[in-house]
Design brief:
By secondary structure, this protein is α+β, with helices and mostly antiparallel strands. It has one domain: Aminoglycoside phosphotransferase (APH), C-terminal lobe (Aminoglycoside 3'-phosphotransferase, Chain: A, domain 2), CATH 3.90.1200. It is 56% helix and 11% strand. The protein has helices spanning 2-12, 39-45, 47-65, 75-78, 89-105, 109-113, 115-127, 168-187, 194-215, 223-240, and strands at 19-23, 28-31, 68-69, 73-74, 135-138, 147-149, 155-157, 164-166. The strands form three sheets. Strands 3-5-8-4 form a four-stranded antiparallel β-sheet. Strands 1-2 form a two-stranded antiparallel sheet. α5 (89-105) runs antiparallel to α7 (115-127), α8 (168-187) packs across α9 and α9 (194-215) packs antiparallel against α10 (223-240). It is globular, with a radius of gyration of 19 Å.
Length: 243
Amino acid sequence: MFTAAHDRLVTAGVRTPRLLYADTTMDAVVVEDMRGGSLEEALERDPVAGRAALELLAAELRSLHAQEGPAFGKVGLVDNGGTPSSGSAARRITEGALRHIEQAAVRDERIAGVREELEETVRRLAAAVRPRARHTLVHGELGADHVLLGDQGRPALIDVEGLMYFDVEWEHVFLRIRFGPQHYDVLRTPGLDEDRMNLYRLAMHVSLVAGPLRLIEGDFPNPDGMREIAESNLVRVLELMGR
């Protein structure tokens, strides 16, 4: 998945650390040493330089999102002729959201109390999404901590194993959450489908409730941090339902 994603980004002209060596038998790679730190650190340390790097990232994302694939799914699957199990990106997100509601409901009584209404809301939002043939190349989990800076400040995408052809709205829902109102405006793009944004926004927040709650049932090293993520996203879910 990593080498397929790396090669696809290089073909698209999108910066990522250069792959210097890969040994599939050892499940190991050697990549370029990026010495400029992360975009997250730059935004905190030097707002002016961080803003400049953020604008460069916006240009990288325009190049990334200009790329299309023949079907939706992980690059490593689609570019090798594979097909996904779900019929569309929106269907996959809908199925995932319903599954996450079920998982969250058994772990939090507030979700349990609105479970039927929440499931109906997801189905209603999904029904409003119109079919689409275009499958855009997206990172999928792009926060400022997943961007490293080179010596000249140019951003490079990392943690790229999840690179996929999908709906660009899924990328922007994640970007808006991770970058927040202070920085997302630089990355904002016109022409997004509001019906998809509405479905994906709710689905994303539900997943960020279910996932952390499931993690802290085990021996996760930072349960308080996960509990805080779950709580903040649960509040957002209820807000989106008008609660």
